[in-house]
Amino acid sequence: xxxxxxxxxxxxxxxxxxxxxxxxxxxxxxxxxxxxxxxxxxxxxxxxxxxxxxxxxxxxxxxxxxxxxxxxxxxxxxxxxxxxxxxxxxxxxxxxxxxxxxxxxxxxxxxxxx
Amino acid sequence: xxxxxxxxxxxxxxxxxxxxxxxxxxxxxxxxxxxxxxxxxxxxxxxxxxxxxxxxxxxxxxxxxxxxxxxxxxxxxxxxxxxxxxxxxxxxxxxxxxxxxxxxxxxxxxxxxxx
Lengths: 114, 115
Description:
The complex is a heterodimer. Chain A is 0% helix and 55% strand. Chain A is mainly beta. In chain A, strands 2, 4, 5, 6, 9, 10 and 11 form a 7-stranded mixed β-sheet that branches. Chain A has a 4-stranded antiparallel β-sheet with strand order 1-3-8-7, with no helix packed on it. Chain B is mostly beta strands. Helix content of chain B is 0%, strand content 53%. Chain B has no helices and 11 strands. In chain B, strands 2, 4, 5, 9, 10 and 11 form a 6-stranded mixed β-sheet that branches. A 5-stranded antiparallel β-sheet of chain B has the order 1-3-8-7-6, with no helix packed on it. Chain B starts with a strand and ends with a strand. Classes of the chains: A mainly beta, B mainly beta.
């Protein structure tokens, strides 16, 4: 149990376009999901906490208008990178909170902006 | 703000030896401490976790110890195997609802197990 999927796994887009990434908890309901960004050989940087039915909580320095988060159901959260630029290229990973504290991660999405 | 420091950043051991990775945390209210293993290009996988009401937890070749007074916790891997090679992350969180249980991650340790 506690499986988290993420789609797409890889996306290449042109500068200025928007990209939507989906995170799904497949066998459990997750009232809280998290979005991270990870640069090569670095740790996971929390971008925002996504709560079902309410607004996301963004970490300091993360532009909420740039990274739109929607958590419309107990099994789905989406991250939309708006007007993407090359500096947004990164590995984006979501996680879903299972029961009290435990977080299970999705497989990640590698975004390349040309 | 909350901070988690992890050492060492790289660790190389011979197959069969033990490996120890240490983390310290700043928020004394932290009460949940998971460890994740991440292979290149893949998702972090939870390998073991410990809560603040326990001092030690073991699962086969993996163990975690927690010293709340000193605010540090450690991962111990015994009888290491080449497939243990990966990046290991420690994390800490405060199970207060209004914080959502967000994890603060350490910088990661790249473990290399040589055959």
